[in-house]
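@channel sequence for tomorrow's demo:
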Amino acid sequence: MKTVLYKENTRGHANHGWLETKHTFSFARYFNPNRMSFGLLRVVNDDKIAGGEGFGTHPHDNMEIVTIPLSGALAHKDSMGHEQVINPGEVQVMSAGTGITHSEYNAKFDQATELFQIWVFPRTQGLKPRYDQKEFDFDKIKNDLTLIVSPDGAEESLWVNQDVWFSLGNFDKNEEKTYQVKKQENGVFAMVVEGEFEIAGTKLSRRDAIGVYQTNSFDIKALSDNARILLIDVPMDSED
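structure tokens (generated this afternoon):
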């Protein structure tokens, strides 16, 4: 087993007034040659958008994009004709494929909207763009993981064009789980959303993350109540 640690206070940071953002991997004006990706996981952005503000229309191509709102609400509009609001408890996926444009704004004017936006390289380039979103009942499964994104829509998850599995879990203090890596030679990027965990023998606090690879499984233990974790099980066939 090998691990790589991504402490919260080592992330790239930018404050544009309307947007405060932290980047686990190199993005925009933040560049760190040692933080380019974890396997085919290219972007993990932790965004806080001021009320009524947002990203104007901009392009994407050949990327699988997953957006997970944490608080507030995100208004989305794209060149495929979708005009939606994504709320906490929902997850959005977008395959940019041959190219799309979209905008993202805080749908609320009286509070900030917080979200994760995550990019994964696709299995194949030049695919037809697609969009989907879904609401998940994260309270239904306690002290376990809910599969939210997969390659095949298993367990009523959303699907993307890559052998990647996203899972979210809410845990009580001292609850433990052994995570089985989904595919041989995949690695797992694990981020603590809230609370504290011990992951693969390493203690992590809020927004700390760890990459675990060259193993078939590893242990997770919650060290606080109301602890929340995000796991991204992703192919490692990149320079990392």
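heads up for whoever presents: The chain is about 0% helix and 55% strand.
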